[in-house]
Amino acid sequence: MGVIGVGYVGLVTAVCIAHLGHRVVCLDVDEAKVAALEAGRVPIYEPGLEDLMAGAAARLSFTTSYDELCRQARILFIAVDTPPSPSGDADLSRVQAVVREVRRHDGERLLVMKSTVPVGTGDRITAELEAAGHPGLGYVSNPEFLREGAAVDDVLHPDRIVIGAYREADGDEVAALFADIETTVVRTTVPTAEMIKYASNAFLATKISFINEIANVCEAVGADVRAVADGMGLDHRIGPHFLQAGIGYGGSCFPKDVQALKQLAGNSGYHFQLLNAVIEVNHLQKRRVVGKLKDRLGALRGRHVALLGLTFKPHTDDMREAASIVLAARLRDEGARVSAYDPMVPPGSRDDLFPGIEIARTALEALDGADAAVLVTEWPELVGLDWAVVRDRMRGRHVIDGRNVLDAARVAAAGLVVTGIGTADQPAGEPVASDDVR
Ligand SMILES: NC(=O)c1ccc[n+]([C@@H]2O[C@H](COP(=O)([O-])OP(=O)(O)OC[C@H]3O[C@@H](n4cnc5c(N)ncnc54)[C@H](O)[C@@H]3O)[C@@H](O)[C@H]2O)c1
To answer: Which residues are catalytic?
Structure first.
């Protein structure tokens, strides 16, 4: 087996398939990444991946050479990135580059598309291969649903495996690779498999924007969105997941996939009205935090705001489309002094994303003398801070809980004022000494 593109999806897929007992050759164009992997180093942070890779090392090899890949592997998983293009469509240039490279090699092979690609991509690639006189290449769509931060578990214990194929036998071959995984296998056509991926991500993003709008209305009418979400989630038709109000979704998938589906619909002559609202609500949600800070501090010029957490969610080092990027830039534009801490972002490492922002070595260092703090990413280390110590380090008293995860009563007992999303402010209680707060 081969895996082309060993990023968050490709590497986890390769390691998990090797763990299941298959031999896997991994190819990437990033020479530094391949060198690190050859030396046994995992270039991304994904819980559990390093151990699983060490255990399966004998069945894994890494290369930058398509000759070597094609000599050794017949089933080729494609897991290259498909970022947004300026038009909002998915940029398929990397997928096309892979197909061009594989085409140069004779022999029967099966391309298995794990990258998220617009509906119609499989049809287009197979038509191009046939036109170029390369009938030896089969094509299967096998979209990936893993979540960064829980990727290993998601690949080994998925909710479902979707396999879209043109030829039954090709689909059977991919299904056989995952035979040891107990789950529902959805066998369908290639376009339907492609659409299942986009529709799933767009629906999850819709749930987030929906609960965020409910949260905003809760603030206006005095209801508590956390209790509302609990009450809604008990309804089996709704379910409890993705009803956590906060400062909006980010990451490498939701923003680009929602945009790409909207664009795909538009290109096909359909105006996908609902997705426009989902996208707009998500943009505005990040900015509402700035409004909350202004309500509490007045003008932000010269004020010191500490951002707790920068990655787009906890348990990953992925910064793509993180809410922190927008937030930091807005605060800086308002004239605030911004400090920040994230367990995955060392000082000086991301000046490209956070120009003018002081990245601290510890949370307390970032909080030193701050007028307000914003919990941006719910890393356990940040949720579990000793808030009495935080109070002593800060100049002001305001904590904005951007993820609605803090135990507001506990934080308030330390003498801080907690503002959530869609909840009433928790006023500061009697300040207590640091070691009285557990
Ligand atoms: N990250 C996620 O949580 C997630 C979840 C489900 C689906 N997906 C989809 O999976 C795909 C990959 O996402 P990712 O987050 O793993 O991306 P990534 O950026 O982490 O990894 C992509 C890798 O492909 C390599 N690459 C680029 N062009 C190449 C080429 N021509 N030949 C060989 N290698 C090449 C890059 O060097 C990189 O290592 C995307 O389509 C994404 O939408 C991602």
So the answer is: 253
Over the stretch 113-129, which tens digit does the pLDDT of each residue have? 999 999 999 999 999 99
Q: Which residue CA neighbors atom 7 of ligand 1 most closely? A: 144
Is 10 near ligand 1, meaning CB less than 6 Å away?
A: yes
Distances in Å between the Cα of 94 and the Cα atoms of 8, 15, 71, 90, 338 are 16, 22, 21, 11, 36
Q: Which of 6, 8, 111 to mutate to test the pocket of ligand 1 (most atoms within 8 A of CB)?
A: 8
Contact 84, 91 (CB under 8 A): yes
Cβ of 173 less than 6 Å from ligand 1: no
pLDDT band at 219 (very low <50, low <70, confident <90, very high): very high
Number of Cβ within 10 Å of residue 110's Cβ equals 23
Give the separation between CA 376 and CA 400, rounded to whole angstroms: 9
Separation between Cα atoms, residue 274 and residue 88, nearest integer Å: 16
**What pLDDT is attached to residue 425?**
83
Percent of residues, the chain, with pLDDT higher than 70: 98
pLDDT in tens, 149-205: 999 999 999 999 999 999 999 999 999 999 999 999 999 999 999 999 999 999 999
CA distance 132 to 111: 16
Residue 227 CA neighbour count, 13 Å, CB half: 7
Closest Cα partner for 9 from 139, 151, 199? 151
Q: Tell me: the pLDDT tens digits for 360-406? A: 999 999 999 999 999 999 999 999 999 999 999 999 999 999 999 99
- Residue 33 beta carbon below 6 angstroms from any ligand 1 atom: yes
User: Quick check: CB of 44 below 6 Å from ligand 1?
Assistant: no
Distance in Å, CA 321 to ligand 1 centroid: 15
